[in-house]
Each structure stands twice: as structure tokens, then as C-alpha cells.
Amino acid sequence: MFQNIGEIIILLWKTIKDLPRVWIERKKVFEQLYEIGNASLLMACILSAFIGGVVSLQTGPVVVERGLGEVLGGVVGIAVCKELAPVMMAVLIAGRIGSAMTAEIGSMQVYQEIDALRTMNISPIRFLVLPRIVAISIALPTLVIFAILVGWFGGAIVAAYNYQIGIPMKTFFNNLKNVVEFQDLMHGLVKTFVFAVVIGVISCHQGLTTVGGPRGIGRSVTKSVVNSIVMILILDYFLTRLLLYIEK
Amino acid sequence: MNSNNNNAVDVKVINLKKKFEDIEVLKGVSFNVNPGEIFVIIGPSGSGKSVLLKHIIGLETPDEGDILINGESILGANVLAKYRIAMVFQSSALLNSLTVEENVGLYLTEHRLKPPEEIKKIVSEKLELVGLKGAENKMPSELSGGMRKRAAIARALVIEPQLILFDEPTSELDPIIAVTIAEEILNLKKRINATSIVVTHDRDLAFAIGDRIAMLYEGKLLFVGTPDKIRECRDPIVKRFISTELNISNHNE
Description:
The complex is a heterodimer. By secondary structure, chain A is mainly alpha-helical.
């Protein structure tokens, strides 16, 4: 495990060192952005609408019962923007995009395509890892912005039309506007950015260390998704602590 | 990048040893390859041929020993980058996500050595040389085994290599394509005078193209010499490897 962590840190460091070349690799970054956006946008919107809805559904009746119905917008707003959208989107992307990255790089490793790159003096980090990590670091926060907006709407719709809640959309959004600050949005986006880098680097590392043919690729994909999700949830706690400390 | 025909390199392998876990794959291999020579390494499957080739191109690091190119150790920083070295993999190792044209021009594109129009022209020339004109826009998955191998050779040619390594160039190919590939390797010698190291267990190929042949067996070199010399070799393992024929007398009984 410690060897893996060390290798992941080294891979991240080498990728950061190659960052100045990202403009040269922009075509590959755009291709990856398209892949990620195309594969995930619709799913992200559907998922976040239901996340916002369920938060409203769980908290709405409780706050309305206590005569605090007008604070529901703020509750849903903060929960979706600071926690649920970043974490749920990161988990979704780890499963959908991280696994695809590992499978693609893993199969290139198994079928000697990466060896072929090395023999041509082409760095696999520059050619494969850099564009993917940069693309996921741009795409995931963008998806999260969409997810937050759609999540808020999902929450507002449930709040308005659920017979136990019945908070008008205007009241919901007025309270949300009063409670949620730009800083809260940044809190969510900073976490998302870190999650994106973690997913990218873990997925690429698993791909590059794949051995043993198709079964090895399957093993790597599983490991990459599980490790990414575990790291997202652990880092979520520590990042939240850190960001709350900074916000004070 | 120039087309200088006199820039072939010499290769010296000195006491190369490699272990994977407890298995000793190379047990102190030493040989020299002269500039412009086609040096063929034969041996049964699992004798360490491909591992040896991977060491020469820097994909593996030896446990002991050294490899010198033009007298310089490839273990030194950036030494391999000073020479134009290409490898044709057994599996061809074309990038499946790129077209044949993108695969063949990858070295030039990634190192930004030529403008795109010139790269297109060079790629087209190289593909024509290996008989793949018109396959530019095909994906590797649309090619047959022989075509993939030839595309891999075209990709190697684009580098205008000083040293070219072939890993089982005729494996999985039908005899006609295998002859074409063998002719292509010989043509390369005439055209660009590159030093070639060919790893194979195909005896016909070895005798047809090799200036010298080495026999690797269980991680050790048993013999190095010209094709005529190896035919005279009295080592029983070498003799058996080069002269065993398929002769099943009771096949039709």
C-alpha cells in the first residue's frame, strides 16, 4: 500500500512538472473534456436533481413541522453545494470516467503500446496522464456547478409540490440566496478540484501498473474505482475540516 | 532529422544479467553487433530473447552488466535519447486509438520535427515502401496481422533509425507475408544501412537475413557466428534447434 501511495505521489509530481506543456497537448485535453462531458453531463444532472429532491424530502417535513419552513432553501442550498454535489459527482466520475481511464491505459500497457511510446522517446506521462488529469480537473468542477444548480432546482420542486412541505419556490430561493454565499460555492469547488486530481492520478496510476492481460485490466479497473472512492470519502472529511477552519 | 546512411551504431552487450523474482532470465550474456549488421538472436520460446531486446532499448534495467551504444553506456542519463532507435514489437504495438497515418507519424508529430503537411508526405512514402499505400485512414483493428506488422515497420522507418530492433517479426504471419517482412528487413539494410537486431525462433528467417546469428538458450549465449558457422556447430542444443524437422512417419497409417 505504501509503495502504491509513493508511486501515486511521484506520478502526480511528474505530471505537475509537465504542466507547462499542457498548451502543446491542448488537443488531447479537449478530446478528454469532450469524452468526460459527453459521458457524464446528463447523468450528473439527473443524479443531482434527485439528490436535491431527496434532501428537501428528508428535511422539509421536519423543518415545516417546527415552523421553520422558510429556512429549507438554505439547508438544501448548503447541503448540495458544500457536500452532496461535490462528493456524489466525484463518486459518479470515479466510476464512469476513472474506470474508463484505467481500462484504456491498462490495455495500452498490457498490449505494449506504452512500451512503444517509450521506445519513441514519448513520455507516457505527457502523452496520456497529463491531458487526462488536466481534463478531469476542469470537467469535474464544471459538472459540479451544473449539479449544484440542478440540485437546487430539484430541491425547490420537491419543496413546492410535496404536500407535507409546500414551500413556494420563491421563498425557497430567497432563503437560499440569503444563506448560501460565494464562499460556500468555492468550498464545494475546492473539494471537487482535489477529488478530480485524486481520481485522475489514481486511475492513471492503476492503468500504468496493469499486468497480466484482460484479467489484469479488470483487476486494475476495480482497484482504481474502489481506491478513488475510499480516498474521496477520507479526503472529504479532512478537507471539510480544513476549509471550515480557513472560513472562520 | 537527416537520411545519413553512414550513421549506423555498434552495440556491445557486456555480461548482462537479469532476474525476475527468483527466475534468472539472463545469465551473463555478452556479444557485439557491428555497425550496419543484421544480427539475429535465435532460441526457443522462453529463452530470454525478448527480455534481452527490452534491455537494449531501455525498457528493462539489468541487474548486472552493461550495454554500450557507440561505446556509451545506455544506463547513463539521456544516452538513449541521443540515438535514433526503433523497435518493431511482436504484437506490433500500434496505438489502437489512432489511425495508421497517426501511428506512423507519431514520432514526428509528438517531437514536432516537421510541419503537418511534410509529416503526411513522409508517412505516405513510408507506407508505400511497406506496401500499405491507401491504408492511411484505417484503424489498426481493421488491419490483418501482416498489415499491422508492416505498419509497425513503417512507424520504425519514420524515425530513420540508426539501430532497429525486431521482436519476432514473422510470428503469427503466413509464409508469404513472412517472406515479405524478411525482404523488407534486408531492404532496410540496403536503404538506410541501420544496424538491426532481430529476435526470432524462425530458423528460415534467421538464415535468410542474418549476417551473424547468436543462439540464446536458458539465458545463456551458446553460439555466435555466421550462418555457415552455425550449421557446422557441434553443440548438441544448437544442432538440435537448427536441424529438427517435423517428420511424423506414421501420419497416414
